[in-house]
Design brief:
By secondary structure, this protein is mainly α. The protein is 41% helix and 7% strand.
Length: 135
C-alpha cells in the first residue's frame, strides 16, 4: 500500500528561509571585511615598527663606533652602513591612509612624522606599533 501524500506539500525554501540565509551571509561578509581591514592596519604598524627598530639598532651601533657623536647630528649616509641587511637607503613607511611618513633619525629612538607631528595612531608608546616601543 502506498503512503498517502499531502497535496499541499512543497519542496524548496520559503521566502523567510532565503531571507535568513542571505542576511547571515551578509553578516559574515561584513565581519570578514572588518577583520581584513584591521589586519591590514596592524600589518602596516608592525612593518613601521620593524623599520624603526632597524634604525634604532643602526643608531646604537654607530654610537658604539663614534661615542662622541650626538644623535641630533646623525646623517642618513652615516647610519645606512649600520642598518641590518644594508638596504642602501633609509627605510620609509606609509600611514594608515597611505600618506608617506617622514623618518626622524636625529632623535633616539627614531620616530615617524606626518605633517610635522609624531605619527602613532595606536597612541601607545609601548605596544610596539608605529614606535620602537620597549626594547
Amino acid at each position: 500500500m502506498k503512503p498517502l501524500r499531502n497535496k499541499h506539500t512543497t519542496r524548496g525554501l520559503s521566502l523567510i528561509e532565503i531571507t535568513l540565509v542571505i542576511g547571515l551571509m551578509l553578516a559574515l561578509a561584513s565581519i570578514i571585511t572588518y577583520s581584513v581591514s584591521a589586519m591590514t592596519d596592524w600589518q602596516k604598524g608592525r612593518d613601521a615598527s620593524e623599520k624603526l627598530k632597524a634604525v634604532y639598532i643602526a643608531q646604537k651601533s654607530y654610537m658604539a663606533d663614534h661615542p662622541s657623536k650626538v644623535a641630533s647630528s646623525f646623517t642618513s649616509s652615516e647610519l645606512i652602513p649600520y642598518l641590518p641587511n644594508r638596504p642602501g637607503a633609509m627605510p620609509s613607511a606609509n600611514s594608515l591612509e597611505d600618506q608617506s611618513l617622514e623618518l626622524n633619525f636625529a632623535v633616539m629612538p627614531p620616530q615617524f612624522f606626518l605633517g610635522g607631528a609624531k605619527y602613532d595612531p595606536s597612541d601607545s608608546p609601548t605596544d610596539s606599533l608605529w614606535d620602537v616601543g620597549s626594547l
